[in-house]
Amino acid sequence: MFNAPRPAQRYTGSTSNGFGGSFVDENPLSSSVYDDGLDPWSAAPSPSPTPIPQAPSSVFNAVIADATVPSIYHRAYASVDPANTGETSVNALSRVLSTSSLPASTIDRIVNLVSSRPRVSRLEFFVALALVALAQSGKDVSIEQVAALSSQNTLPEPTLDLQALSTITSPASIPRRNTNQTIRATLPAYSSDDPWNSNPRFPANTGNTSFGGAIDGLPTGQPSGLAGTGLPSEWWRKEENIKITILGQQGFILNRYTVYEIQSDRRQTAVARRYSEFTFLWDVLVRRYPFRLFPALPPKRVGADEQFLEQRRRGLTRALNFVVNHPIIKEDGVLAVFLSEPSFETWRKQSAISLEEESASRRVDRIEEMTIPSDLEDKLAVVRGKISPLIEQWQRICILAERIIKRREAAAVRTPALRRAFIRTHLTLPELSPSSTSSSLPPGSPRSMTASLSQSFLGFNTNPNVLSSDNQGDLARLTNTLRVVVEVNETCWRGDDCELSNGVRSGLSQLAAHTQRHSEISELRSRSLQDTTLESLKAQRDLYLATRDLFIRHDRLSLDQVERLKKRIETTSVKLDGIRAAQKENWQEEAEKLTAMIEKDQATIAAQLSRRVFIRACMWHELRVVLHNRENALLTQAVKEFAHEEHEYAENVANNWESLSEAVESMPFE
């Protein structure tokens, strides 16, 4: 079924397009184009990573069982996981528990009881709250006690001050350092002129006949806007933003399915959709717009876990954001209904939906046809030659970026879990000395320095036997431990007011507070990298994959019968002339039939020649307006945002530690 490994190429025979195979056949969505072997939502099953030792989830399933969870549990969890991802950080759990007024030693014990990882699941979070309630009531703080109460359906309710729950530290709450000068590189001046220098003699068509006519829900034609970039000024700031969240599972056993909620910043109401409705929409779009650029959907998988569903949600979000901002597809009638109709399934049953190709209801006017460059095939050949290496490199970038982000949020695992086979073929660092081994070199040797630099700059460990650090989780645990130390040393052995002891305790309290703040800053940055930077990189990869698929569709679907029909017309014309010359009995009827056949073939030739022009116009539009703009402008936007956010993050970290330095300046030595 869906979990079966798919072959690397759908068609084994060589093709003229240089891509080997196509995902487009009778069912345009029959397989996924995202065949990097590493993406969590690839249709091919992923190898299981080496797990970090932890309490099995089944243990906590048995602890909570089917007990009714008090509402305060859900409110507390929602305050630290608003996106409902199913897990949160140890630091967030510690912040919630700190509102219970329990001693720091008790909080530290509870955190260590429920999880040894830098992240905690929803069930682990609920068990921690139950342990807090037990501690507040003076009962035994143990997992067994929680299990006993759960079996009686009497989970205790903790007393938490959620109103006072501190949120993630904002940049405004961190003291700023004095900076006298900011050095910035001079930005080059960019022109808005046509980068292709194509037919500058012909201005943009200002009429409404280009690509005109709305038939069966197809968008009404608009001028292509051939001046400049072909898009409005600063179009990247005006794009519609779609957000997709998982509402939950519905159905029973084999009929269970996931329901997604779609929200748009330009539409008033949200709609609920299941995955099969996404595939129906994409099937319609592929058939209507075979020569337009848009990404494929992430695939379906039976028995998908939470991680797979989350990655698929992100993939659906990227794909839907692409089509709603495509200059042509965004006007599609079925797409508009998909984003607004409360019950899409009911609408489908009551409506007749045309799957007619876009070229049947649109036309290219003479002026626009003349703007298509004569060397269009050469320009397309250049893109074809670049697309495969670009896909490969952007796949690497996405993998490395995701790996770095996971390490920054302390969710990384051992290097063998990160696809050791992939590391050998794609991620092997150059050896400085082929004959030497790292074990024979001193710590300061060049290769040792290479490995150290790789770990520092790239964010991953090249030694498969070394466990990566869990900085963020360790910082949260360090904060709890420091507070326990402060509690234990609350009373000096001297029995009187000891200034030395009190001063050191005050300094340790400041260290704990600033350590927690650093953990919060890191958590905020990790979340931002996951939700913005990484998604931007994957969107860039998706763009090139969509371009590859466009070329594949073009090679398969742009074929026509013009030459064959011309030969048939010639043959029929010769036969018609012979019948007219012979003028045998009933020759008039036979001549009329042949004449009708010739007229029909001539009309078909005219339609197919018109389709040829339309396909060329589409390919030119997608190359010049969609691909060229998106691959450059959106990447510029992502890089600038990343640089700004990293600079702000570095400033916040520096300000935090500078604030600690000032706070502990008065710590006594004697």
Features:
51% helix, elongated, 3-stranded antiparallel sheet, mainly alpha, 670 residues
Describe this structure in words.
The protein is built from 18 helices and 5 strands. With 670 residues, it is mainly alpha-helical. Strand 4 and strand 5 form a beta hairpin. Helix 15 packs antiparallel against helix 16 (499-557) and helix 16 runs antiparallel to helix 18. The chain starts with 56 loop residues before the first helix and ends in a 7-residue tail after the last helix. The model is unreliable at 1-58, 167-175, 177-227 and 411-470 (pLDDT under 50).
Number of strands: 5
The number of helical runs is 18
Coarse shape:
elongated
Strand content: under 5%
Give the low-pLDDT segments: 1-58, 167-175, 177-227, 411-470
Mean pLDDT: 75
Radius of gyration: 32 Å
SSE succession: HHEHHEHHEEEHHHHHHHHHHHH
Protein name: Sorting nexin MVP1
Family: Belongs to the sorting nexin family.
Keywords: Cytoplasm, Membrane, Protein transport, Transport
Region (Disordered): 1-23
